[in-house]
Amino acid sequence: MYELTDLFQSEREKLFKRFSNRFEKAYNFNRQVVSFQANKEEPVSRWFKYKEGFSSALVKYFLTEYYNEPGRLLDPFAGVGTTLFAGQSLGWETHGIELLPVGIFVVEAREALQKINPIEFQKSIEKLWIELKKIKETKTHFNHLSITQDAFPDETEIALNKFLTYISTVKNEKIQTVLRFTAFSILEELSYTRKDGQYLRWDYRSKRDLNGKPFNKGKIIPFDQALKHKLSQIVSDMSPQNDSLFNYSNSNKFVPKDIKLIKGTCLEELPHMNDDFFDFIITSPPYCNRYDYTRTYALELAYLGCDNEKVKELRQELLSCTVENKEKLDYLYQLYTDLGRGTTFANVLNVYNSSAAMNEVNSVLDELNKLNKLNNNNIPRMVRNYFLELCFVVFEMARVLKKGGYCVMVNDNVRYGGEEIPVDLILSEFAENFGFDVKKIFVLPRGKGNSSQQMGNFGRTEIRKCVYLWQKK
Ligand SMILES: C[S@@+](CC[C@H](N)C(=O)[O-])C[C@H]1O[C@@H](n2cnc3c(N)ncnc32)[C@H](O)[C@@H]1O
After folding, report:
1. DSSP secondary structure string, 235-297?
2. Which of 135, 273, 428, 442 is the most exposed place for a label (fewest CB within 10 A)?
3. pTM, rounded to two decimals
4. CA-CA distances (angstroms) from residue 231 to 36, 81, 91, 188, 235?
5. What is the mean pLDDT of residues 377-388?
């Protein structure tokens, strides 16, 4: 007697066997390097915690290991710009696409900082503390979203609004941006909330009516204390001895090239880019794990002026990775037709539809849904659309890369209803169809206690965390 799931293993199994000689245990980069953790101690990168990011060490490793000299680098899911700044520091011309105002603002603030005179900045901080004391009125600059209402203690909200009143009078725009960024990067610690993947968790002390288990996030830091701490971090990272910033007091060997960041969705922006333009792509799309950036970063989005409507719109534009995302097939059809590239649309769709492993995953999830084995009915739709959209992205990445150019992608496999979804294998199969040679699938070592070095030991049901290396043929 076999299980229902056994019937559906075979296509994934075949793909696993086909790519098994490309798997390699990733000794050079551990989990810290692939996640944002390694940035926590790094000057500049540590200012704003973007949990979904990877480390600049990872980017620098690939750029130096696989390329002799700086060229053009792209990250179509740029986040807070880890790829862009790491590439820039090595002399690369860097291009990014990012949809969420959160990442875009961090990149802008970091660029502003590169162009600020540290002495002038220091003076503006001294002035800030004096001027803040003089502000009496409490105009509201922070307009809450419904999901952020009552996120701060009252006195913090007042102090935050006074701070925003003051910085709107700062004449030097770059200094104003950096000051605005300083408060932006402490919002979570000031608040009753904690980012938790799919949503925000709320502390029991907030005014919110909370159902469920009470949550205590620990100390909630007063505004002035948190601001002082962040400013001192920034000032110390701006010191001339520090290589991480290219401010003009720094004596670098080359003049860094300005970062080119496009604000928008890469599904729409990539098709507008030229063929054979980039030498390297290093990227990490959202994972297929239901994490909703528009909820976890709701405080930051509200701070940046997004209202409820805008947030809903952004949620739909993100690469499908939450159960709320609707299908974008009609939109993609229209996009490619308007560009006169209807054939491309048909070809990409054909690659998606011809993937036996993809079809197997889709039907097994539909089956599990019918049996009520998934904890949300929209999981099959999310998974189907996640891969469909990434199929277009992989096609475009192959098109815009020069021959011989590399694409590095960081992504995790996932499991739903007990079923493994081999994201690494399915995306690598798409990549092959679009002219990539799948060079390596680096698998991150698992936690302590597993010293297995044999690739054969990567069981087919292991939830692999991987870095893929594809080269355009
Ligand atoms: C895993 S994060 C990348 C983090 C980045 N590697 C870093 O170190 O900051 C994925 C990013 O993709 C962005 N994103 C999601 N859908 C997008 C889309 N359709 N177009 C462009 N960016 C998108 C998200 O806002 C998020 O910042």
Report:
1. HHHTSTT-TTS--TT---SSPPPPPEEEES-HHHHGGGSPTT-EEEEEE-PPPSS---HHHHT
2. 135
3. 0.93
4. 21, 21, 28, 16, 6
5. 98
Which domains are present in the chain? 4-99+267-291+314-448+465-472 (3.40.50.150), 117-237 (no CATH)
Sequence-distant (6+) residues with CB within 8 A of 447 are: none
Q: How far is the CA of 311 from the centre of ligand 1 (A)?
A: 15
Rounded Cα distance, 86 and 81, in Å: 8
Instruction: Measure the CA–CA gap between 30 and 52, rounded to whole angstroms.
Output: 16
> What average pLDDT does the chain have?
90
**Residue 280 pLDDT more than 80?**
yes
Q: Any residues with Cβ below 6 Å from ligand 1, and which?
A: 50, 52-54, 77, 79-80, 82, 97-100, 103, 265-267, 284-286, 293, 317-319
Q: How many CB atoms lie within 10 A of CB 129?
A: 12
CA dihedral of 113, 116, 117, 122, whole degrees rounded to 10: -60
Q: Which of 58, 85, 99, 328 to mutate to test the pocket of ligand 1 (most atoms within 8 A of CB)?
A: 99
The residue-averaged pLDDT of 391-415 equals: 97
